[in-house]
Amino acid sequence: MSLFCLVHGAFQGAWCWDLLIPYLEAQGHKTVAMDLPIEDASASLSQFADVVLQALPKTDDDIVLVGHSMAGTVIPLVAEAHQVRQLVFLTALIPCPGSSTIDQFSHHLDSDSLKSLNYQAKQSRELEQFDDEPYMFNPVSAGKNFADEAVLMEVFYQDCQPDVMRWALSKRRSQQSMAYIYEVNPLKALPNVDYKYIFCTDDLIISPAWSRYAARKRLGVDAIELPGGHCPHLSRPAHLASVLTNDRPSRVN
C-alpha cells in the first residue's frame, strides 16, 4: 500500500482533500495533507516544499506525491529532497527548470499585459523552447479576480454539488504568494521518477490542450483524462481515487 501525500493548490488548504481521503484509505492506503503558507506574500517554492517535507514520515518508501494546480511547481522540489515513487500532476502546472511559469507563457501576452504583470521580458532565445506550446491557461479565466467568490464559483467549482461548493467557498484562503508564477524553478532537471498527469476536459483554469501537450513534452507521459472542472478532488473524488490508485503505465513508448 502507498502513502498519498496530497499538496493543495492556490486558494485552498489541506481541507480540500477531505472528500478524497476516505476513498484512498478505504483501499488500505495512507494519506497526509498539509497547509502551505500561501497567505505569506514572501513565501518561496522552497519554503512550500519544506512544509511538505516536514509532513512526510521518514520511514515510508512508497510515496505518491500529488500536486494540484499551483502545487505542480512544488512537488518536484520535494522529490529532489525525499525519495518518492511517483509524482502526480493534477490539473497542474509543470515547471521547467531554470524558468518561471510566466516565462513559459509570456510569448502569448502583449507588451501591455506583460507590463501590467511587472514582467521584464527575457532574451527571445531563452524562451524559444516554449514557442510551440499552447497557451497554458484557459482564456475563460483570463483577467479574473480569484479573490471574488463569484469567480471561484464560475471557474473553480462550477461542477461541484451545491453543498460542496458552499463548503469550499467557506474554507477559501487568501493567496498572497505568487512564487508559482514569478519564481525561477531552481532545479537543473526534473526528478527521475514515475509520472502521472491528470487533466479535466472542462477545466476553466489550466488549458486541457496545454495539459496534453506538456505532459508529453515535459514528463514523457500521455495525460489521463477526467470529465469536469479544475477540482476533481471536490467534484468527483471516487473517480479520482480510482485513477490515482490505478498503476497502469502512462509513459509514452
From TrEMBL:
Coiled coil: none annotated. InterPro entries: AB_hydrolase_1, AB_hydrolase_fold, Sec-Metab_Biosynth_Hydrolase. It holds the Pfam family Abhydrolase_6. Signal peptide: none annotated. Residues 6-238 form the AB hydrolase-1 domain. One of its GO terms (molecular function) is hydrolase activity. Keywords: Hydrolase. PANTHER family: AB HYDROLASE-1 DOMAIN-CONTAINING PROTEIN-RELATED (PTHR37017), ESTERASE_LIPASE_THIOESTERASE DOMAIN-CONTAINING PROTEIN (PTHR37017:SF11). This is Alpha/beta hydrolase.
